Amino acid sequence: GHDSFKRGLADESSEPDSVLRTTVVDQIINSYFATPNETTNAWDTRSAQELATAINETDLASDYKEAVTSGNSKVAAIYSGEGVGDIHSIDKAYDIVTKVNEEAISLLLEMPTKHLV
Q1: Which residues of 35-73 are buried (b: 16+ CB within 10 A; e: fewer)?
Q2: DSSP per residue over 17-76, as a string?
Q3: Mind listing the pLDDT tens digit for each residue in 63-116?
Q4: How far lies 26's CA from each of 29, 32, 38, 41, 88, in Å?
Q5: Which residue of 51, 74, 86, 105 sits 20 to 30 Å from the alpha carbon of 44, by its own alpha carbon?
Q6: Cα–Cα nearest to 2, from 63, 59, 60, 79
Q7: DSSP label of 85
Q8: Cα separation of the two ends of the chain
């Protein structure tokens, strides 16, 4: 995904309870869970009919698709679940595996030798 969406997942304001289950994003592009943004704030409390009319008669859908392409997370959804509050950084897989490996080696070296046999 776009880097701005990844940063949005690690944003300090993202909490498990801040994830929004909304039909707004679903109606625009067929998906449910997202972090709140300008689009969900503007449309989540309005009727499905109002949103459908806006999708069909305005640039809402094309503007949304452009926001997805450009990484504008103020308009396009950052897809997330309740685990979003546990994300504190977006790291490369190599760095994660290296860190886990180093921690495992450190723990093994700290163990008394009688447990290693």
Answers
A1: bbbebbeebbeeeeeebeebbeeeebeeebeebbeeebb
A2: GG-EE-HHHHHHHS--EE---HHHHHHTTS-HHHHHHHHHHSSHHHHHHHHHHHT-TTTS
A3: 988 998 898 988 987 776 666 667 778 889 999 999 999 999 999 888 876 655
A4: 5, 5, 15, 14, 27
A5: 86
A6: 79
A7: G
A8: 46
Q: Which residues contact 90 (CB under 8 A, 6 or more apart)?
A: 6, 7, 9, 10
Tokens of residue 73, six digits: 């997370």
Tokens found for residue 7: 């940063």
Tokens, residue 87: 């994300």
Q: In a 10 Å sphere around its CB, with 0-12 CB exposed, 13-18 middle and 19+ buried, how is residue 102 labelled?
A: exposed
- Residue the block writes with tokens 């990484």: 71
